[in-house]
Specification:
The complex is a heterodimer of chains A (533) and B (376). Chain A is 31% helix and 25% strand. Chain A has 533 residues and is an alpha/beta fold. In chain A, helix 14 runs parallel beside helix 15. Chain A is globular, with a radius of gyration of 25 Å. Chain A starts with 23 loop residues before the first strand and ends in a 12-residue tail after the last helix. Chain B has 376 residues and is mostly helical. Chain B has a domain of 244 residues: Orthogonal Bundle (ABC transporter involved in vitamin B12 uptake, BtuC). Helix content of chain B is 73%, strand content 0%. In chain B, helix 1 packs antiparallel against helix 13. Chain B is globular. At the A-B interface, helix 1, helix 10, helix 11 and strand 18 of A face helix 8, helix 9, helix 10 and helix 15 of B.
Chain lengths: 533, 376
Amino acid sequence: MNPGVNTNAQRPATAAVAAPASGWAIELEKINKRFGAVHANKDIDLKVARGTIHGIVGENGAGKSTLMSILYGFYTADSGTIRVDGVEQAITDSRHALALGIGMVHQHFMLVDNFSVLENVVLGAEDSGLLKPSLDRARRELDRLESEYDLEVDPDAIIEDISVGQQQRVEILKALYRGAETLILDEPTGVLTPREADDLFRVLETLRAQGKTVILITHKLREIMAITDNVSVMRQGEMVATLKTAETSPEQLAELMVGRRVLLRVEKGTATPGRTLLEVDNLVVADDMGVPRVKGVSFAVRAGEIVGIAGVSGNGQSELLEAITGMREARSGGVRLNGNPIRLRGDDGAARARAAGLAHVPEDRQRMGLVTAFMEWENAILGYSTSPEYRRGMLLDIAAAKRQAAEQIARFDVRPADIMLKTALFSGGNQQKIVLAREMDRDPAVLVVGQPTRGVDIGAIEFIHNQIIAMRDAGKAILLVSVELDEIRSLADRILVMFDGVIVGEADPATATEGELGLMMAGIAGPAGETHP
Amino acid sequence: MSALRPLPRWADVLVLPLLNLALAFIVSGLVVLGIGHNPFMAVWAIVTGAFGTGYGIGYTLYYATNFVFAGLAVAVAAHGGLFNIGGNGQAYVAGLGVILVALALQDTHWLLIAPLAILAAAVFGGFWGFVPGWLQAKRGSHVVITTIMFNFIASALMIYMLNRVLKPAGVSGPESAMIAEGARMPKLGQFFPPFNYTPVNFAIFLAIAALIGTYVLVWHTRFGYALRVMGQNPAAARYAGISNSRMIMLTMTLSGALAGMVAFNEVLGVQNRLVLDFVADAGFVGIAVALMGRNHPVGIAFAALLFGALYQGGNELQYVISGLDRTVVVIIQALVILFTGAMEGLFRPGLQRTLMLFSPQQTETAIDRSTVRSES
């Protein structure tokens, strides 16, 4: 059948992707996968040309994961054909997929933290009973791969000592070592700093130049535009379009993904700051190892403004957030909420901060903000279980909690709207909405938000941003920490840049350019050009 | 690795334990066969021994009472993510509290002694749980290690107390004086003749109350909520402002107090004096009971009954089939613990696959979970 044909006649014109000279690396035809009533993949056609970078975008639940699971052998399709290098294959499991030259780099790495890079690469691919010959062979092969694809990693470094970006390279090397010709990357930049993401893109370009095929699953349209040759858009189990990247725009892709027009820019009025609600005074915070991460930070957030803290991740933002919200003891310095100092000692500081009117959307919702094994309604009272509204004598007023959870779900359009569903089964965007709904529901004076849209799909991002702006306009003081510079620039009324545990400068998002902010984030230049070594 | 959907609740709490149990009995049957006896006869002897007569049922319920308390002690701690292996020591030390109250008040009525003995058992057992809890909360010593140590300390302490402090003049064995006749708690046999000559006593009602109370506590109180948050995700507990250190100390105290109720059953209900090793490792059986009962009171009630029946039926076995005795039952118990406790996950993947064949609705969510899971 015609490659790249549009399966939905109502969609805007789709540029047909011509059969490439190099041939198709992967051809999926009429793939169907049903899970009971859910039709996860409907008649999916996808052709990936050899030696290209092919992007797949779509919201959570659009069927991307299912499709890639079928290609990688996690699941077998109900119907349809898969051709690898033009030969029809019935992929039975991931080992089989690997043997066919299909490798996958998961969003969350599958590495042994206390093994070296070399050991991780060899793990599961040892070719003799004794380890030494395998490792020696692997070291030579790794050397070759590293130079061929410009993927520098120290083979003897221990995984837990290297950066996330380097760990990702190890995952790529693992796939290449096993002979991958086609590499599937699932949301690869979700865990990376902007610089690491740039490095990754350079690696992907090298892979392409060497004739490898890359399938990139992402929800970041900017990345699609920057690196891919072709892009396929999925929505609700259907492949709605396959386009040449050069012939499309982020706006068009967003519309195809969501099925309606999406505003990529946040629309907000000017801030009208009132009195100071949150004051941070010379705060010094150490991490779990006792290393100081926040080295004397002072700032204030006023009612009706959003203050954004920008910075490359790992420069003390997480520790700063945790100290302000009472999750981590500060070494020295103080935090005042609404003029009242809050005591930051003990392991229940978060309860005192909440009582003082601070709400907190944590950076890592699954690690901190939710108990994923709980039902949704149980998470709707996390942090507030002792408040009077849920008290019925000595018991927890479960009926009240469920009522409130149902209200929150309705107001924030959480899907599925099922308060009895286990929280782990909600998508990332909906999990984030559950946290936001809970924290905004108490009408807090101060809202502290970390990485509000990490791993959240585009429709939900728009919603979350609008909610944050609405909170600002309702006269709340909002502190926003994000590693997404775009997000900070579009949401914040003032930007503080953090580098190596101190605030190196303040910028006005209306006038500061990305370049200026980037230099400050790298610790090279202050706002007036002064240097910060 | 393919994604598997988590088991539905009914399969998790019912089918899986039954499968494990069936396997344990099959392997036990092979053992009996190997010794040269008919396994069906042996099972029949155990079943009739445990449930065939009022006498058998009385003993089964008496054993089950102990195992309910010990199982609940393990379960409450487990809900908070703590593994209390110290049930034995906590029950043992609680016996000291019970006997002190009982001896001090033996001139009064048992109706006065019983509630105070429960309180004393809770205080003494709770204290023996609190100390390891405090050590973990404040000093970072893991309760698994400290509770094991506290079992040994309890053992040494009680030997000293029995030999040097509680032993009345003229008694040679290491045991305390008997409680005066008039102060002894009556056994159920006095009100219900079929239970005559069996040790089952009013403690069984306390066990039922403890089962219900634990259910309410864990799933219907703010404390239980905080407990489960801590057990599932300590970082989320910290985020929620739940003090992990305070919760650990409270939970271990509560767990120890529950284990202490074994002493109430044994000392006030049966022995009427304090004897050496009266706990008879009920604390360890409690671990198996909690594991098999999935830390849920309903499951624990059934598991405790099963182990009670094995204890009682095993005792009867030697009278029915010569050549088989309690040691065979020890083997069966060991196999039950092995298959329901240590290897409880044996059938899980198979059962998950089987169920997914029949009800694949949520399979997609299972894939999504395995691909986007954050626990990395």
